[in-house]
Amino acid sequence: MRSKSDYSSGGAAAAGVATSPASDLGSIDPVLLVLKVLPFSFLRPPRTRLRLPSLILPSPMTHTGPCHRRRPASRLPSRRVNGQYIIEGLSSGFMFVLGGIGIIVMDLALDRNRPKSVRVSFASFGIAAVVISYVMSTLFIRIKIPSYLY
Fold first, then answer.
1. Taken in order 57, 63, 69, 72, is the CA torsion positive or negative?
2. How far is residue 119's CA from residue 8's CA, in Å, rounded to a whole number?
3. Distance of CA 52 to the CA centre of its chain
């Protein structure tokens, strides 16, 4: 029977052999090694001059000036003065609704009869909805009132 020191030294020696870098290369199938190394030793990727296409969408709240340049507008054209207020009201109202739905979903996450995965997903969606609605609502207010909360 071996002593306690023999077990500890034998285990360390065996672990040292298993983790050596040479044994990692030897464990790879030679055909796979050739397929991985050989093609990339002489093949190079082509130099392509591809660029990402630029997609220019007409931005909202802009108008064309006298020199045909797009400029930001503080209001919509005169025939649609109330359109800006309608858009602002709908977007801020949606943010308030999103925050309310987030609170309701967080309340549903407290139900013990639901599986844990459903409760976790409800809680994460509820927290995300409340955070997004809060951040976007304060952003809307800061756009309209620049010195708000500074």
1. negative
2. 47
3. 21
pTM over 0.70: no
Residues 49-59 as b or e (16 or more Cβ within 10 Å = b): eeeeeeeeeee
What pLDDT is recorded for position 113? 93
- What is the Cα–Cα distance from 94 to 135, expressed in whole angstroms? 13
Sign of CA dihedral 34, 39, 41, 42: positive
Phi, psi at 138, each rounded to 5°: -70, -30
Q: Report the candidate in 83, 89, 105 with the shortest Cα–Cα distance to residue 137.
A: 89
CA quadruple 134, 135, 137, 138: dihedral positive or negative? positive
Q: Which of 141, 64, 71, 128 is nearest to 101 (CA)?
A: 128
Residue 3 to residue 9: CA distance in whole angstroms: 10
User: What is the DSSP secondary-structure string of 29-41?
Assistant: -HHHHHHHHHHHH
Question: What is the pLDDT, as a whole number, of residue 6?
Answer: 53
| Amino acid residing at 16 | G
